[in-house]
Amino acid sequence: MEPAVLFAGQSLDGDAVAALSGIGRDSRRVQAGQAYVAMGHTAERPAHAAEARQHGASMVIAESTLAGGASLTTSHARWTHARASVAVHGLGRRCPPLAGVTGTKGKSTTTHFAWWAMGLGAARVGTIAWHDGLSERACAQTTPPPEELHEFLHGLDPACPGVALEISSHGCDQQRLAGLGLAALAYSGLGRDHLDYHKTMAHYLAAKLRAVRWVLPGGTVIVNADDAHAAAFAHAGRAAGACVIALGQDARGLQAHAHARPQRLGQHWRLHLDGAAHDLPTPLTGAFNAWNAAAAALLAMSCGVPLETALARLAACPPVPGRLERLAESPVTYVDYAHTPESITAVLAALREAHPGRRLVIAFGCGGDRDPGKRGPMGSAAGAADAIVVTSDNSRSEDPAAIAAQVLAGIPASAMREVVLERGSAIRRARELAGVEGVVVIAGKGHETTQTAAGVVATWDDRAAVRALAQGGDHG
What we know:
By secondary structure, this protein is α/β, with parallel strands linked by helices. The chain contains 16 helices and 24 strands.
């Protein structure tokens, strides 16, 4: 490819070679004839560029001039790499409609629902897995690196009706979707998370807002109208030339091109959109999952699926792994991915509503080497349960007991609480505390199948543990 094609729409300075075979960002794996994009720490870039040249890189692109051969400078190496990778994979010419979901909570559930609502052959990318329309495989990151995502999109069947994408704040900050165009984006809301990376809530919000830049003119931005930052996302959506749908149980006061509102009718929900009411199937319990289902249907609609068709498909949607997944009875036991204060609050409220008058127990922990400031607030949120079992959850390099002590500091002194660090024993204890008529939620890991402690990654699956206890007749 000619550099003019590879870097179309970009302003780069320096001397370019006549032709390139592609682009790479790993100096150890760059191939002969490719351009290497240096995006590591400033002190490492010269050494990495030299290594890339030794492997045959024809040119180096970096945020400062690097000696040794043909090079170009860019103001943002990650942005340059992502856009060039789009060109390499031909996605500017052929790409299925893309529907993104961002926000602190609900991304995996909404993405799963949207994928199903798009119909046969639709694809999905996110925390739980990749799905190419035929089969599923594990995904190491919520939003994968550009070249991996682009290779996946390039390999999809040309008849693929759409792709549902989870968009993480890390993915936004690192420009992983730069160069792609979203037909629609849903914003589920902002809560405390990832402050070990973003440092402040303001930076976290700014990262999420970058996702709106990738929405195509005339696309759709679906905003959680009940979120404190709804107005910022609605404004960004209008600035991007998108149709903004304010989706909330009370959308008054938010100026948008359209309003949508889920409405509860007993155990059922309806979706109100621009004066018309539609039956809204909700595959999972809780008002927040009604929002997830409505947003998913609207995402599918924005990708060309009639709204009524999308809603009808949701009625047959398979369970979302590890998302309020009901896995045992006597006591009723759920596994959920809730790992923020807001998520724990929402899950406990949903289970109170679904099982009124029954004893509710939660078992959860907090991850090590991550934002320690949310540990106390998570304990406080768990105080809405009748009993709490604090356990370990990917303690990584930290002492699990020290993490548990920080969680305990946030739990109300009047709450019934215990610390059981071994996770299997904690699940068993939670079921004992609930009794046969109670309800248990095992929170934090959801679909995950490993547990990391003291630098060791071991096999662990909350879902399998609950099933094993239930099959063994253990009820507490």
